[in-house]
Input
Amino acid sequence: MAIKKSFPEWLIKRWLDRFGLKSTGLLCDAINIIPPITVRCNTLKTRREKLVKALEGVSEKIEITNYAPDGVFFSNPKGSIPNIEAFEDGLFAVQDEAAQLVTLLLDPRPGETILDACSGLGGKTGHIAQMMKNSGRLVAMDKDENKLLKLETEMHRLGVSIVTTWIHDLSNPLNGKFFEKFDRILLDAPCSGLGVLRRNPDTKWRATKQSLANCQKRQALFLDKVAHLVKPCGILVYAVCSMEPEENESVIKGFLNKHAKFAIEKGPTGLPFDACSLITSNGYLKTFPHLNNMDGFFSVCMKRGK
Output
């Protein structure tokens, strides 16, 4: 199967052990198909039904996402995304449905103080801001200054004004001058990227068993670093674009063993009713390309006690 589907043998073997022959084949096939372009309607500027009309002519077929209330997807656009008028006007951002569900799991509210702890280029930052209705305080943290500069440009395009940036590498001790506590923290941790292979197929040839172990160590470290920044009764959401247990359940079990004040929210309030079917009995949000037609993500919502 590894040769037929064009995947590393070690990866196929672990998927066969976990999913079985049929599901592994379906997973490989889903990854090998070019995915649609999924975008998130910017509700600070428009509504999804108006965005669909604005995108008429961009693609022959435009559909709404199954779970995310602001998602739209299409294939084979007639021009590049940055040149689409609706994009220039800030009416949408490119973001897979699975990534949109992560922010819904976080359930940000207007007026809160929220940290996007590994913000990158700001895909989820923008979503958090629109769910906050551009009201409150939102801190976007990343180690890469260039990414944060691009994030600021993106926030301007989307009409977001509540974001401040913080340059910091969570591999290092937190800046002593920063003692702020947050109502909610999103840690979209660096990972193997094995859940987004349909968008980045070359990743499968770079990933190794050792790289999974290295990612796990860093993810555990980052969770430890941000845990004390959560207010009592606050929310911490951990997310990775990976389906691998080392980066999923193993990280969370290790964190909860060290941090008794935190517990998994098994009935999170932010997800739409239909999306709650993606939550496992243990409270984990899991998505798969072959089952849900979206990227492979793992996310969990944890609440800090008083």
Q: What stands out?
A: The chain has three domains: 2-32, 37-94, 97-304. Residues 104 and 304 are 18 Å apart (CA to CA).
